[in-house]
Design goal:
GDXG_lipolytic_enzyme, alpha/beta, AB_hydrolase_fold, BD-FAE-like domain-containing protein, BD-FAE-like_dom, hydrolase
Length: 307
């Protein structure tokens, strides 16, 4: 059987920057939602998409929150901020849009599909796509805040710390919100009770992220750790972490904050008393306070003059 030969250009995927946007929905009063916009097309996997939440009547180019979902790098939904927010109405992203932000919620390759730095590469591509379409969408990508929870917080921190070397001029991460995320994969075992975490386990979420047991690949673990990329030029960070977190210990948040401060960057570390991972154990009032504090931090970053 003869396999037909096609010109290479015929099989090339379309440029996501030139694709038409999906029609906007109205998921809540005062909010538009562009769901499922393709931001990158990579060979051998599904096209990657993001959702964009926008205020219905924006007054000016909008600061952008890039919201990165959690799920131990191996699962998760881009529209999900965690189980404590699933019954909110309006939901958290609609509330952020009502507060005057554009909120981009990207999917990214999970650890069962590709290992680090694939996830960071995908989020960087999402930021580039937003920057390329900023004029069309009414975005100010000179004022980007990354925000993530758990594995998403880890990726939001990596994106914030590496963006200056990876995104076009004029696209600036002005702040980062990190909820209960690992800051240093190489020290997790030191911060948990004996037997709670095995760095030689090749099947832990962290091992699946880097493609090897943490103990067997320390260089890979360091390369996938936010603390590795901390400099004095890092954007301001807000780090919220539960003092009772049994999955990612609070010492991980403390370590990231300490590294930022030691480098001369701004880090606001707020331990959340009694909270376990995913804000388990907090009252509804206290969960809302974590959200509101993070929103106020994002507002401050968006209002600050560019350096």
């Amino acid at each position: 059987m003869t396999v037909p030969s096609f010109p290479a250009g015929l099989l090339a995927p379309p440029d996501p920057v030139a694709l038409p946007l999906p029609p906007a929905a109205r998921p809540a009063p005062g909010v538009r939602l562009v769901r499922g916009a393709v931001y990158t097309v990579r060979d051998g996997i599904r096209p990657l998409e993001l959702d964009l939440w926008l205020p219905d009547e924006p007054r000016a180019p909008l600061p952008v929150i890039v919201a990165v979902h959690g799920g131990a790098w191996r699962t998760g939904l881009r529209e999900d901020m965690g189980p404590r927010f699933r019954r909110w109405w309006p939901g958290p992203f609609a509330r952020l849009a009502r507060a005057g932000f554009a909120v981009a919620c990207p999917s990214y390759r999970l650890s069962g599909e590709a290992v680090h730095p694939a996830q960071l590469d995908d989020l960087t591509a999402a930021l580039r796509w937003l920057h390329a379409r900023a004029g069309e969408l009414g975005l100010d990508t000179g004022r980007v805040i990354t925000w993530g929870e758990s594995a998403g917080g880890h990726l939001a921190a990596l994106l914030a710390l590496t963006a200056p070397q990876r995104v076009p001029d004029g696209c600036t991460v002005a702040g980062c919100v990190v909820w209960y995320a690992p800051g240093d994969l190489t020290t997790l075992a030191l911060h948990l009770p004996p037997g709670a975490y095995d760095p030689t386990d090749p099947h832990s979420p962290e091992a699946r992220l880097i493609g090897a047991a943490i103990a067997d690949a320390p260089a890979r673990a360091r390369a996938a750790s936010p603390v590795t990329y901390v400099t004095a030029d890092a954007p301001p960070f807000l780090i919220l972490h539960g003092t009772g977190d049994s999955i990612i210990p609070v010492a991980q948040g403390e370590q990231l904050a300490a590294a930022l401060r030691e480098a001369g960057a701004r880090a606001d570390f707020r331990p959340v008393a009694g909270a376990d991972h995913l804000w388990v154990g907090l009252s509804d009032h206290d969960v809302e306070h974590c959200f509101t504090a993070s929103l106020e931090f994002a507002r401050g970053c968006a209002a600050a003059p560019a350096p």
